[in-house]
Amino acid sequence: MARRIGAQSAMEYLTTYGWAILIIVVVLSVLVALGVFNPNTYVSDTCTLPAGFECQSSVLASNGMLTFTISQFTSTPIVLTAIGCSSNQSILYNKRLSPKIGLRIGGNVTLSTSCYQGNTIFNGGIGNVYHGYVVINYTNNLTDLSHLAIGAVVFKVRQIATTSTTSTSTTTSTTTSTTSTSTSTTTSTTSTSTSTTTSTTTIVSASTIAYVYVLTGNYRISVVNTSSKGITATITGLSHSTGNTANYAIAMTPSGATAYVGGFYYYLFYQPAVSESNIISKTYVNVFYPVGASNGTATSFAGISIAPNGAYYYATDIYNNTVSIINTSTQTAIGTITGFQSPYGVSIAPNGAFAYVSSEGMSTISIVNTSTKTITGTITGFHNPYYCGVSIAPNGAYAYVTNYGNNTASIVNTSSKSIVGTVTGLSHTPMGVAISPTEAYAYVVNQGNNTVSIINTSTRSIVGTITGFYYPYGIAFAPDGASAYVANSNNTLSIINTSSNTRAGAFNGGSGNECVAITPNGAYAYKTFYTNNYHSYPNIFTVSTSSNTVTGSFNPFGSSFYVNGYGRGFYGLSSSPNGAYLYGTDESNSTVTIINTSTQTVIGTITGFSCPYYGSVSIAPNGAYAYVANYCSGVVDIVNTSSKSIVGSISGFHNPWSVSIAPNGAYAYVTNYLNTSISIVNTSSKSIVGTVTGFHQYQTFGPGFSPNGAYAYVANQGNSTVSVINTSTKSIVGTITGVPSPLGVSVT
């Protein structure tokens, strides 16, 4: 009876809950089939390469064949030599790449390689997961040193391998890109590896991207990827550590291996000078340059004092912190005294035994022994003694020193070598001081209000003022004391009648507006000053495009060659088709210089141009002729490269600056400075056949053509952009930004 009841209960239970259990079993079966309970279902593909590399577009096939894209962003171009995939980081399974693959900075390549699990090639169905490592062998393009890059990978099998004839050969498919608006041209020869037992490494595709080298106004080159229009590298070092650099031109060799940047560097050189005037006839006589010019370093004479015998004089150099001793007969330097700091004034004692030199930088007076030509003592307590601000009395017992810093004059006892008195009440900016031959008065120049204060040396007080000077600096008495002479900033010498203490006229004393001294015979006045001018050195930098670094610079005329004045150098550059020589335009003398790139020397000159300027020369791809743009005459001259002469010209331009002949030689682009356009020239008919507009006003340079001639790139200095021109439609199709003040464009 109990058994019958239990069976009945079980039947009732199954009847009641059986359908539910069945549904649960079915659902679980479906979930299992869908892989819900398989941890591999939730695995994502990962490929983590070392710094400088990126892994993209990865696919793992069921036969263990991994296909993925590598991009490299190391500091230099590299060459991939072998690649492999293993579960234990072993290089035993790496296969050599044939040919080896060169990758620029920012370049990428798609590769396929077999992944090993232990000692055998991985084999798995869809959804199976592979854990391993990608191992890359590569060399540094600059050092040729070998390196290893290992990255961890986790991949899920996502496709079934296809079967075809077994092959271990390398397959290459190259895609060439220009800009984002261009079309891609692909050629391929397919050879697929097949069996699960054959290990292969296949190059699927390698990108060859054109790069625009933009010469910028901050001594750099911005390297622009034409596909992304982004700056991928910046080349620095296009300036000289000494002097100032001006770069105006960039040219690429046809191989694309080297870029040349032309221009010049220059020094603003200074030369201390002394002008001589005859104070009897009141005429300018001569100018002397007792010491040499200084390249790039400021130098100038300030204080001046003539020895009692007139045989020599002292002149202070405020920038070199020296005193030059100059022979008055030969007007050449015969000695130098050092140890000062901004020496603005000097006075030789009447007995010639010593001199006082004021150092504005230290607010001191240095005592110089004129026999040993050395500093033998120092007097302190002054306040910025400035131009021409020291004078020793005729009896040698005392000296006056003007203090620019507090508008006073200090009185120094030359025996005790100390300050014994102060004169106050001087006007703003006291400069030169001179004590009269009678020692009764000291005259002080006040530059701030164009006056001269008269000090009674007995009472040490101001007893008079003379007006009417022009930013005066120095003052000196004639030996007889009847006159004093004031050096004005307009190169004149004002004459003071010391009896009436009035101005008695002025005359042109020649260049020189600083300190003044009168010769002991009373015949001549010497004024100090300096001249400046430019020394320009033509210069060309060489740039390696594989490393994007400056590899050197040279002056094709010789390292010591320079010209006086600003601007001698290269404003346009163009390479011959074989890279053997360069044409460089020189705006300062309207010539084209021919430069041998091997010897880096000048091998010829072409004349007859009017005014070639920025980017103003382009050699045709066949090397037979060149175009030279002349901005002032509005013509482009045609040069026969064999005869090295002008054989024709094309007119109709608007101040043409830059010219570039297309890679096929069929046409040329010429930028017009004044109407912000580019003229298209048919090189066969030698005529203008089209115009491209829409550039930034005035400052357009270039253009540079892409290697296939499909695009031209034009630098707009005014708004720091580069315009991209489609040469088929003759229209602007893109803009590259972020290039500061571009001056030229070249493409590789």
In short:
By secondary structure, this protein is mainly beta.
Write up this protein.
- By secondary structure, the chain is mostly beta strands.
- The protein is built from one helix and 60 strands.
- The strands form 13 sheets. Strands 1, 2, 3, 4, 5, 6, 9, 10, 11, 12 and 13 form an eleven-stranded mixed sheet that branches. Strands 17, 18, 19, 40, 41, 42 and 43 form a seven-stranded antiparallel sheet that branches.
- The longest helix is centred in the N-terminal third of the chain and has 33 residues.
- About 6% of the residues have low confidence.
Overall average residue pLDDT: 85
Class from secondary-structure proportions? mainly beta
Number of strands: 60
Q: Give the DSSP E fraction (strand runs of 2 or more residues).
A: over 45%
Residues in helix, %: under 10%
Overall geometric form: elongated
Report the uncertain regions: 163-198, 202-208
Instruction: Characterize the quaternary organization of these chains.
Output: single chain
The major pleated sheet works out as: 11 strands, mixed
Q: Helical region count?
A: 1
Q: Using only CA atoms, what is the Rg?
A: 42 Å
Through-space gap between termini: 101 Å
